[in-house]
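If I may wish for something, please sit down with the protein I am sending here and say whether tokens and residues agree:
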Amino acid sequence: MSLSTPAAVADAPPVAVSLPLGQAAFVLALLLGLQPVATDVYLPALPLLTKALAAPMALSQLTMSALILAFGVAQLAWGPVADRFGRRPVLLAGLSLFALSGFGSALAPSVEVLVAWRALQGVALASAVVCARAMVRDLYEPVAGARVMSLAMSGLAVIAIGGPTLGGAVAGAFGWRGTLVLVGGAGLVALGYVAWRLPETVRRRNPVATSAGPLLRGWWAMLRHPVFRAWTLLIACTYGGLFTILAASPFVYIEVLGLSSAAFGLTLAWGGGVYLVATFVGRRWIHRHGMGGAVARGAAFTLAGGLMALVATRVDEGALWWLLAAHGFYSFGHGMHQPCGQAGAVGPFPHAAGAASALAGFVLAIVAFAIGLWLGAAIDGTVRPLAFGVAFWATATAAVAWTLVRRHVER
């Protein structure tokens, strides 16, 4: 790939771009929704494939954590490429690869091959998420972007509600391979919509975005920016708790608490439903209290969820209900933190939104990958790894919201 571009491109005037609010929210939900599709739809089948492929727990968890690690690292490449060449070509390439890797995963003959396909799917997924976050900055200023992101998150919550339920039903009817066919099909749907309806949103392409020197200097400036650090740490911590729920709950709910795959899907749908409510409340709170104020209020719910998770480790009966309550409270707080954090992290960098989105996403993915490795060793046939993990990340999220975000973000 050439690191230079014709001067005419660099000197070209910015292209005026606009999308109707409804279309912008829909396409953001569609692209960001591929992340829960790649995880939530697949989760009810995780214990099934563990048994079917005779996989040790560490390799079973690696089918999730490899996707997340590849997702994080690939963002560092896709972000600058999207700044240089535009969102649309990156999306067309990445979504094609996402669909292909989904169908390849469904045909995997062993857990090792499945891990490889899932890692490739993580690379592809990164293109969709990076471009979606960057498009928010292409089209809106940070506060308006947070509101639009919150609207998109309402659509994302609908996917989060239906995905696990559908995944559990498909796993019960067609086995674990059926859920991965479903994931590949979702990629095809997103690819078709982008090819048919989505225009380019970059106003002016950055011809040096992929040059090593400017790129490294830009990332260093982002890491030093207090607003970027505050929002990125917030979304990393809140996602850490959510990923703990996603990765540990199949084994806790199904193998420890005795739920069926279909019933487990309903537990994830419960969290998605609460998240949906939070996105509606969040738009009101952002308008009334600002991004920092909405996040500070959401942190109280997050911390309450962490405390409820700890209670689940201390009761002989009713652990299921305490965990469900913890999941609900945590999901409500997450519905505040994610829209504000994703819009806020890229806000200071309108001309490098792809690179900023990539760097923030990389931090999230490294946190999730570390959690996946820890859970592979920590899952012990009790509720404790799930509960302690949620409590830890709830405490960290609240601490960041009430200190760094409060200090560096205007209410």
Notes: The mean pLDDT is 87. The CA atoms of residues 131 and 315 lie 45 Å apart. DSSP finds 15 helices and no strands in the chain. The chain has one domain: 20-196+214-408.
